[in-house]
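Hi,

I'm pasting everything inline rather than attaching a file, because the server keeps stripping attachments. The sequence lines come first, and each chain or strand is labelled.
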Amino acid sequence: MLQTIILNIVRILFLILLQSQIVSRIDLFDGLILPWVYIFGLLMLPFETPRWLTMIIAFVTGLLMDFFSGPIGLHTSACVVLGYAQPIVQKILAPREGYDLTQKPTVQRMGLAWYLTYAGVLTLVHHSWFFFMEVFRFSDFFYQIFHILLSSLATIVLMTIGQYLIYNSKSSQL
Amino acid sequence: MKNILVLIQRFYLFLMFLALQIFALVFLFRNNNFHQAEFIRHSSDWIGGIYSKRAQLSEYLRLGEINDELSLENAQLRSQSADNFIAIRSDVDTLSDSTFQQRYTYRTAKVVNATVNREKNYITIDRGTNGGVLQDMGVISGGNILGVVRSVSEHFAIVMPVLHADFKASVRLKKSGAFGSLVWAGGDASLADVIEIPKNIPVAPGDTLVTSGYSTFFPANIHVGTIQEIDDESDNNYHILKIKLGVDFRRLDHVLVVSDIMKTEQDSLLKQMGED
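And the predicted assembly:
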């Protein structure tokens, strides 16, 4: 239990640093593709996390991210939406007998198809909210859609590759 | 009363979502431009510290290039030094000069963080109020216009660069002297737009644009960029000029912060006019 808590906190902090110091600085096609991979830390929260806690963690994560890559409130807002939607998506995607306690939201435990649906929907929700809030105008609508789709795709690809690199079937107990 | 409690119990997650969301959005949209400033003031020392470490690393990797730039600048400065000039006529050997008075001074600073791929980009430099940097000072890099200081803490300052949706600066065509405004519409970090130059002013690709010196942010004749493309399609009477910026925002290291000694004087005069 304690191990899980520490692991999740360390993972979120590490991902925020990774995002702000490396990933955000990768400039692909003049900012057309801008992956926000730090949300991986939120997607990896255990299934049994209470919904209110998921939202609080998302809020704090977003606020920390805003300190690095302001304006204050932008990531916070998108993360709160993600934190609210995440348990709902988990519930919709749940197997008939529900999740058992050893299951984690990883490719290795839930399968690639499940993971891509889960991460895909939530990444789209987060990125759509984020990019529309950032510009807060609906001009360049199609550019924005393109921007959101390509950035989400990049985020999902990076997160999935990350899973294969970090977790193998033996260590997926964590 | 009981009903309300039951209602809260049933919808507490959604209410919590609303509360957190409103909190975030109030921060985001209140005081639209500078909501970051207050937070930066408190958090910049540790956030800035992390950014400085990374900047040190990337600076180390291109020390050679920086050396070249600095020695070039050294050579230029040295050639202007008084030692290199000799008096041609002995009778004007000493000259008490009261014609000129210094107006601008420069401070060096180092860039510790910069973004180029957002709609509203910001640059962090490692000099704040302790180093004499104040809000609304201009920042230049390699003789090119870079941005304006928006908020300062003790050791760091946040600069709003040209690459920001709200940036606007007064610029001038070097050739004809016509005035326009420099803005940025997003996208490519090496291009910006100049608007409000009337169509009857002749322009050609390659023409140079410099600062006008009308604002107190920048001295006159600081290089801005060169015209790359001219768009006269619109119905109004103004050119839309795509210009290639002189500064490369992807590789910033050393910048100069410009302080205008007569800023308060000029601003208070303007304010006086406004009050009348």
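The radius of gyration of chain A is 16 Å.

If the labels don't parse on your end, tell me and I'll reformat.
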